[in-house]
Amino acid sequence: MTTTTRQSRGGHNNQLWQISELVYNASANSKNTGDEQAMTVLLITGASSGIGAAIARLAAKQGFDLAITARRMERLEALCTECEPYGVRVLPIQADLAQWEDVQRIAKTALQFFGCIEVLINNAGFGRLNWLEKLDGQSEIADQIQVNLIAPIQLTRQVLPSMIANRQGHVINIASLAAWVATPTYSVYAASKFGLRGFTEALRREVSIYGIQVSGIYPGGVETEFAQKAGIERKTRLTTPRWMRLTAEQVAKAALDVIQHPRRQVILPGYMSLVIGLNRFAPRLVDWLIQQWFVRRERLTS
Ligand SMILES: NC(=O)c1ccc[n+]([C@@H]2O[C@H](COP(=O)([O-])OP(=O)(O)OC[C@H]3O[C@@H](n4cnc5c(N)ncnc54)[C@H](OP(=O)(O)O)[C@@H]3O)[C@@H](O)[C@H]2O)c1
């Protein structure tokens, strides 16, 4: 593993200097040469596991320079080592998106180091899935809204001026099917993801005039650490069947494909559009089915 103390284009302060010591393999053979228009610097939140880590691996393979962020620094460092063979620069930034100062520091650090961020992937998020009255007001409600919705908005706001100045950029928000179909025990999670979808739609209309793309990715169940952290307690043991679950790599592939072929939204798996349509056009039927299959059995049985 090689390390570098390379200076950022925008100069450095002590904090950045410490971080830059963790940057792995500043390469001379980056794929940037020859194609000045190609977007090459990607910032991804929640890269320490699951979808974010899979996106980071695939993006490095495709030659993107990366700023990666999460709380678990040891995971980010391991990812840096994994990306080393691809000859790209990877800047790990330890940050807790529930902390406002940390959110501010991410964009600043990445912009100082790389000079620009061309693709921002707002991926970090978590779900605490329980009946509303059982959720903790701070850690399971306020923090969930902060990490899943407010942090992506604030981070985007900080990255946007450089995208506008460069007249290019792409913001990709990893939302969820819960941004379209809200189900019991997902109330706060759905609120955060519905909000993220609204933000994504409005922002796209605000910035497309500058050549900036904004996309939403809406996956159904994905095999990651998400469920382990969700605190799910089910009497019925109802869960997404294994055959319906996506892999993190499938979502990562969709995210990288959206960079190459920008689209407003990607629903994964595609057939889930039918469920979204059913929920939209037959909401009473969906309410009834959910009451019968889930809520009555969970709430009324002892
Ligand atoms: N898995 C699913 O079924 C599914 C379905 C649809 C959408 N999604 C969405 O996909 C995104 C990625 O989730 P995943 O499935 O890959 O789950 P995951 O494996 O648990 O990854 C979540 C990532 O978010 C980071 N994160 C969580 N809280 C954070 C905080 N306070 N500050 C900074 N980073 C934080 C975690 O890093 P640290 O813990 O190291 O901080 C981790 O890297 C989330 O937005 C999730 O809502 C997931």
Distance between the termini: 56 Å
> What fold name stands as the CATH topology?
Rossmann fold
| Count of structural domains | 1
Low-confidence sequence ranges = 1-21, 23-36
Report the mean per-residue pLDDT as an integer: 89
**Which class of secondary structure composition applies to the elements?**
alpha/beta
Question: Helix fraction?
Answer: 40-55%
Biggest β-sheet: strands ordered side by side in the sheet = 5-4-3-6-7-8-11
The oligomeric state of the chains shown is single chain
CATH architecture descriptor: 3-Layer(aba) Sandwich
How many strands appear in the DSSP assignment? 11
What's the shape? globular
Q: Indicate the radius of gyration in whole angstroms.
A: 20 Å
Proportion of residues in β-strands: 15-25%
Q: Spell the H/E element sequence.
A: EHEEHEHEHEHEHEEEHEHH
Q: Short summary of the structure?
A:
With 302 residues, the protein is α/β, with parallel strands linked by helices.
